[in-house]
Predict the 3D structure of the following.
Amino acid sequence: MAQNTTDVTDGTYSVAVTWTSQDTQTLRSDNFTVTGGSSYTITIDVLDNTNAGRTRCGLGFGTAGINWNDFNTYSADQATFQTLTFSGTVPEGETTGYVEVRFYDVAANWAGSAMNIIDNITVTLDGGSNLVVNGSFEDWGNSEPTAYTIQQIQDTTGTGNGASIHAGEYVITTGIITAIYGETFTMQSGTGVFSGIWVQNNATIVAVGDEVEVTGAVQESFGKTVLIASQIDITGQPGTEILPAEISTLLANDEGYEGVFVVCTGTCDNENPDAKSTKADYNEWSINDGSGSVRVDDFALDSPFEPTLGNEYEVTGILDFTFSNFKIQPRDINDIVLIGAGTDPIMSITSPANGSTVNSADVNIVFTVLNFDVANGTADGHIQYTLDGGAVTPLYTTDPIALTGLSEAEHTVAMELVDNSNNPLDPPVTATVSFTVDLGTIPGYTTIYEIQYTTDASGNSPLIDTEVTTRGVVVAKNSDKFWIQDGAGAWNGVYVYYTTTPSPAIGDSVIVTATVVEYNNLTELSSPTYTVVNTGNTIAAPAVVATGDAGSEMYEGVLIQVEGVNNKIGRASCRERVCYVV
């Protein structure tokens, strides 16, 4: 970023933003106070006189974050300033807001860099004054960077969310480069917690082992602390090798080791940890030494590594945090070493994700157990678990733990393998997951009822041709296509036109993003993507209806039971027609 005085829309200065990476770059304002229910307007002036990049901005809130679907307008390549304007309503209950500006590449025209000029960022509530401090970039403060150690930059004391206490500051620090990943690298000073940091390079040519002095801005990028370098000076090659910290797979999920060179040894307990939640494969896998799982990624590898479930591996690399998960980033294929077939007992919880929010009072705890046979007195032992520190419950199978009627609160399930005499193993093998149950309205979500309920004589949805995100439990399937409901009764079911294998299973709770369309008078969700929240749920009870009501609009997509008919379970699959399961 650079101060600009030539192209300005308000005051004396604007800011020229140049980026040399095709990764999305961000600029975030300080937080400001908002009032739930207020009408907001957000504006930004952008001079985008390049076809290689574009700019976008959004308004976020302390709890809900930013729903980028509400801010879908980007700057366009033109020779004069343009103003992007958005308006909406502050979600109820929110008290804190912030502006985030994003800078994107245009891949077809990318030539190594792009530059946009921005000025006059405003946020007003109900037509009031601008809430963005220094939105016109008039105050540039102290241009001299503040010197900190990497440990001081990475300090998260009092933030409560793993963010650096120096986020947004202009700093200078030193360290030794430990790994290079394309346009980013990691540097470290000393060893132990908070000794490493990820750095966004400014095109300076560097090598592993270089001692560098980096000047730049501290930024939180989707939960990871990153130093955005504006200047990098190579001060020497000290020849001092930084050795990886030998840590447990549990500690490899600790904020203190983000950016640190580490090594973990564990058994592969999951070849694709994303399969249950997204049905995708991002070439990540996980290892577990009995203390908990950590993911392994392939960011720097020439081709994905294919692990074998149950084999033991030693994995060396830098601890990263992306897409809400800590993961080890091997520097090359030699950082993954096969130890042999795993023999130690392992237990891992695969769903729900630790720290996640679940919008249901009924939650299934899905887990895996390796190298340990679970039964009642006839195998290696069994499982004991507690809910919120309560009574110990024995479990003699590896079927999901079905928790029902949970209150709206944070809950913790702690599991442990024990022998047939109820004694913990030595060393202990445990797994713990914490999650929050929130039964209220999900920010940014549209209920199935809102999609289906209509007073129009045509029966068309009021949201036709609108992209929505909704959720429900799969109650029936037709090949890969499926129906979901978020409750029993009229207007609570909808058909999802999904054509890719695999599709979710009956009983899966799913979040679906799709476009509402009318096809042959049937309301359906078209071109969908979905995420599985949890599995094995009890489906909604069928609505009991008379034969004359079975074909009515309100039961379209709803599981029904028709009175007075044998083989009663059926589905009002489309208008004026009922397809029975016989």
